[in-house]
Write a sequence for this structure.
């Protein structure tokens, strides 16, 4: 069955969901700007090269550039015989650049993750495509006769790093069997898969004779006993055969209501996820078209399911229903009622505070069109699969105004990425809503901002201040020993009154030669320490509200190490050494 994540990704490619690009954490180590460049880079050009995993050029790749935060600014070009490409006549902005080529794949994590690189005019880009993997086999019935024109799906359950995909397991491709019952699915991401036959395609289109059957997983199983197949880049795994069970499934049906467009032509997407031991094993979806009285999802085995709906109202507005848990046991489930409600929004302003200190004179200011404010949603507890795609990123308007739309219920923080060496992120705060009995300002960096369906929060203030320092240094090991893998250099605030300021904790990975660099540092006193993070001490989570214990432990260790460093406004320290 086709997963909700697969459907949403296709909508992204169609342009309908580009404004809902998923938000993610840009840790302090990832917020460092590139080397200083002129305010207006020459020619408005981004150049690049497409290579394969061996470093050889990939010619005739389709290369895409898109201005972040827009839905109608995608441009395309082809790579030449040497893999080179170029986009010219570009405005000052942040761009995403990605490429496709038949038989090759890009990282799924790069595609869905807003931590993927952002580019500016003047950048040189290198993109690596890897050869997609292949699964092939035969589908036969109980009489060993070929099952013809049945859809066979490859469902990723873990990525190449052994991690579960961002959403429920991801349907990365399907093919129909030929007159011999043979299928061949190519262009698959590296990872671990289960393969099944049966079920229809996205949104209930392309009705087949097998839509009401329970999917049969290779070799002839239900989902919980399916064989798992691990694929590496370029692998071709043959003999993934399926003996089709042909079991009649049950149907879940009902209706969706909620906010509609002015003309009443509203389309709802209904998602359904199989739940086993509290985890989603797969999901499927259908639609309730405009003016339709309801929806139906067929081919379901007995079990527990979560079901929800989402809608798109006008340009860029969306709604979602609360998920419902239902049980299918020996019969159809009818009369499921889902009510979509508007998703939340947050608006505010990016504030720039200049310095009059001589050392900071004539330094490059942040450019709004090259600045990104994100939302990062705490995934505990995780909601329906669709929730994880309805996050947001915002490029400030000319007056600094920022707005996030279509935020799913949950708790959020607001990381920032900008390109100006002598500026630092000073604070992220949220004014109390007008009329709120608890007036005042909340530290939205140190505390989660909790959103419910329909919330309309205003008063988010993200402040960048001029005067940032930078540091280049070297880790010296005893007796010339190698730098430990995963070693991180940290700066933690030495002044007690700054101990709870999560934005004053910085970290960066140490290179294999012992060198490291940190930019965009707030002036002040710090303790320096090197450490290999523990299992629950991820560098990317250093500044999250739920990492108080990690920061306290780090500060205690740094205080004992007594390696102090102080930064003045706009100071660049070099040749710093630490053991």
């Amino acid at each position: 069955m086709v997963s909700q994540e697969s459907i949403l990704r296709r909508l992204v490619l169609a342009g309908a969901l580009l404004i809902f690009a998923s938000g993610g954490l840009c840790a302090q180590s990832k917020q460092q700007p590139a080397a200083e460049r002129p305010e207006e880079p020459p020619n408005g050009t981004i150049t690049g090269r497409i290579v394969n995993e061996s470093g050889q050029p990939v010619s005739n790749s389709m290369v895409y550039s898109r201005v972040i935060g827009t839905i109608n600014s995608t441009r395309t070009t082809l790579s030449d015989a040497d893999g080179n490409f170029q986009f010219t006549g570009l405005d000052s902005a942040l761009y995403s650049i990605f490429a496709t080529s038949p038989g090759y794949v890009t990282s799924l994590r790069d595609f869905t993750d807003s931590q993927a690189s952002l580019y500016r005019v003047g950048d040189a880009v290198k993109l690596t495509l890897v050869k997609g993997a292949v699964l092939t086999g035969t589908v036969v019935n109980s009489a060993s006769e070929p099952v013809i024109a049945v859809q066979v799906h490859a469902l990723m359950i873990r990525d190449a790093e052994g991690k579960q995909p961002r959403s429920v397991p991801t349907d990365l491709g399907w093919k129909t069997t030929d007159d011999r019952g043979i299928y061949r699915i190519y262009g698959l991401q590296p990872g671990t898969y289960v393969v099944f036959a049966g079920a229809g395609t996205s949104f209930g289109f392309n009705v087949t004779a097998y839509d009401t059957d329970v999917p049969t997983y290779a070799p002839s199983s239900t989902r919980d006993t399916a064989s798992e197949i691990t694929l590496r880049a370029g692998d071709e795994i043959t003999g993934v055969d399926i003996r089709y069970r042909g079991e009649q499934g049950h149907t879940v049906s009902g209706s969706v209501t909620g906010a509609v467009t002015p003309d009443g032509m509203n389309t709802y997407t209904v998602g359904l996820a199989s739940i086993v031991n509290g985890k989603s094993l797969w999901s499927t979806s259908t639609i309730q078209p405009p003016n339709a009285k309801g929806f139906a999802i067929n081919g379901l085995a007995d079990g527990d399911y979560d079901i929800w709906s989402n809608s798109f109202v006008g340009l860029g507005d969306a709604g979602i229903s609360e998920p419902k848990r239902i049980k299918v046991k020996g019969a159809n489930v009818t009369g499921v009622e889902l009510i979509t409600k508007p998703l939340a929004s947050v608006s505010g302003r990016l504030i720039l505070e200049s310095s009059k200190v001589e050392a900071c004179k004539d330094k490059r200011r942040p450019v709004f069109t090259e600045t990104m404010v994100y939302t990062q949603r705490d995934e505990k507890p995780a909601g329906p699969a669709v929730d994880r795609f309805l996050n947001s990123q915002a490029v400030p308007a000319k007056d600094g105004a920022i707005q996030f739309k279509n935020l799913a219920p949950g708790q959020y923080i607001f990381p920032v990425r900008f390109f100006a060496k002598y500026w630092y992120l000073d604070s992220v705060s949220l004014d109390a809503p007008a009329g709120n009995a608890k007036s005042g300002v909340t530290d939205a960096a140190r505390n989660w901002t909790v959103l419910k369906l329909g919330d309309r929060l205003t008063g988010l203030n993200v402040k960048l201040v001029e005067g940032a320092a930078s540091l280049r240094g070297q880790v010296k090991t005893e007796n010339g020993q190698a730098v430990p893998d995963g070693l991180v250099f940290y700066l933690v605030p030495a002044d007690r009154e700054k101990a709870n300021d999560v934005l004053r904790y910085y970290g960066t990975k140490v290179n294999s030669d012992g060198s490291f660099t940190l930019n965009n540092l707030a002036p002040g006193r710090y303790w320096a320490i090197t450490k290999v993070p523990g299992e629950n001490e991820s560098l990317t989570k250093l500044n999250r509200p739920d990492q108080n214990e990690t920061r306290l432990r780090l500060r205690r260790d740094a205080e004992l190490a007594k390696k102090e460093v102080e930064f003045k406004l706009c100071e660049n320290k070099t040749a710093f050494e630490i053991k």
Notes: The CA atoms of residues 484 and 532 lie 8 Å apart. Residues 548-561 form the longest helix (14 residues). The radius of gyration is 26 Å.
